[in-house]
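Let us work through a complete example step by step.
Step 1: write down the sequence.
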Amino acid sequence: METAARRNRWVERLFTLLMRRTLDEGFRFPGGGLARRAVDGCMEVLAGGAEAPSREKVVDFCVCQVYALTFDAKMLRGWTPAHSFGRKALERFARNTSTHRYWEDRWLKEHGLARGGLLHEVRDRSQHPLAKFLYPEYEDATKRRRIGTEAGLYVCSLSTLLWTPLSPVCQECAMAEKCREMTCERYLELYRLRVEHGKQGGRS
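Step 2: predict the structure and record it as tokens.
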């Protein structure tokens, strides 16, 4: 449902928080396609075939990269996203040992930070709390019962979250417009999200 680009924005916020709290209070993560492609490509490798890497793994990765910058003032001055999210960064993380993590944790503590706290300090604001209800596919079986009839609409009103443009059953239903109006009246914010997501092309 969610694009990698949106999913990875929290990674940039986490990296920025670490940089500002430890090395450069004025640090800003650069915008633009090159920076975002570097982050997205890096997260894809870290995920190892999954949809996304775990939050804990990303925290470990960002801590590793920012800590490495503490030893290279020249690199810090000329920093680019490729340095911390490119091939060499992935190799650096792969070489990270428990000894490295020990010194990283001491460094974090000096700045009033900890890995567990970082998971809570930076939240993924792009993920709306109702996002999981954009298209609850499990409802389609119920929606197929008496599809296109008043009785079917009644069943849907009792047992489902009603109309969504992502459901093929809703797309085929003759009662879709009436159901859409009911959804707007009953679940206004969810309706807004579904319409907006539908305009963006649905699931990614």
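Step 3: interpret the result. Residues 134 and 194 are 6 Å apart (CA to CA).
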